[in-house]
Design a protein that fits this description.
Rossmann fold, Sig_transdc_resp-reg_receiver, phosphoprotein, five-stranded parallel β-sheet, CheY-like_superfamily, 2 domains, globular, Stage 0 sporulation protein A homolog, alpha/beta, YcbB
């Protein structure tokens, strides 16, 4: 819905503290960030209203009565809801933050709530929605061609995958091409490979059958992928050093890596330790497959 050429986002606030709900609603109204269409104070009420109203954005507390925020998000995601979720919490535990991102949140707003952070986060989510809508319009324009070739889903996932690899700073690396093949065929890879050796063998067979002029030596494939993922961890650790609560760091660190290993890498870069963090290739690939879903 547009008003004076400005998108008016439909926002829902889910928070058991009435005072916090009032603060958030006031910020949204005062900074013209959207329209608050509903509020909820517990998980059960939130789930029902989310499914019924399908808001563009939902601000949701992590710790709610009856059903916590992560459980609510998982429930409504399973119903196909495409709402953008922003988690409100004072929780600092990285395992909880990781679970929240895996459930499908976009950003965190830390308690106590302040206007600067709230405006910044809502503005970023608004930009994401505008970009998504613009991309959908473009895709609709070319959907006939894509459907005819049977490539629509693959193209969408590839575009998002390229974006993530670029943010990780490894898009141009030799190993990133191996990683892209694995993620674009991830359902087959996950079903047919029980260990890393079989994963490298899958790539070897893929290149040979496709006639791709790329080294299909098992050891060369392994080294290319390891170098790329190690570089990605290095770049994510640098993100953490620059802004520990930054959205890029909080999105990638717990989903693609073991968080304690990222912290080790941060300490290594600070020269506090002589040993950096170690990568978990399976976790990286599973996390990347999750993040790159269309």
């Amino acid at each position: 819905m547009r008003k004076d050429d400005k998108v008016d986002y439909r926002i829902m606030i889910i928070e058991d503290d009435r005072a916090v709900r009032r603060i958030l609603a006031g910020i949204i109204e005062n900074y013209d960030l959207g329209e608050v269409i509903a509020e909820a104070e517990d998980g059960d009420e939130a789930e029902k209203k989310l499914i019924s109203l399908n808001p563009d954005i939902a601000l949701i507390d992590l710790l709610l009565p009856k059903k916590d925020g992560i459980e609510v998000i998982k429930k409504v995601r399973a119903r196909g809801l495409d709402t953008y979720f922003i988690m409100i919490s004072q929780v600092e535990a990285q395992n909880m933050i990781s679970k929240a991102y895996e459930a499908g949140i976009e950003f965190f707003i830390h308690k106590p709530v302040n206007a600067t952070e709230t405006v910044s986060v809502l503005s970023k989510v608004g930009e994401m929605i505008r970009l998504k809508r613009a991309l959908e319009m473009i895709k609709e324009t070319v959907s006939g061609t894509l459907n005819e070739n049977g490539n629509k889903k693959e193209v969408r996932r590839t575009e998002k995958l390229d974006y993530i690899l670029a943010e990780l700073g490894i898009l141009g690396d030799a190993g990133s091409e191996d990683i892209k093949v694995l993620i674009e065929n991830y359902d087959v890879v996950k079903k047919n490979t029980a260990n890393l050796q079989e994963l490298y063998t899958f790539l070897k067979d893929y290149y040979e059958k496709a006639g791709i002029k790329k080294s299909s030596d098992i050891k060369a494939i392994e080294m290319r992928i390891r170098r790329a993922i190690n570089k990605a961890m290095d770049n994510v650790a640098l993100m953490g050093l620059e802004d520990y609560h930054g959205e890029q760091f909080m999105r990638y660190a717990p989903v693609l890596f073991d968080f304690k290993e990222v912290k080790k890498q941060m300490d290594f870069l600070r020269k506090k330790t002589q040993e950096g963090g170690k990568i978990n290739m399976r976790k990286f690939l599973e996390g990347l497959a999750f993040l790159s879903k269309a």
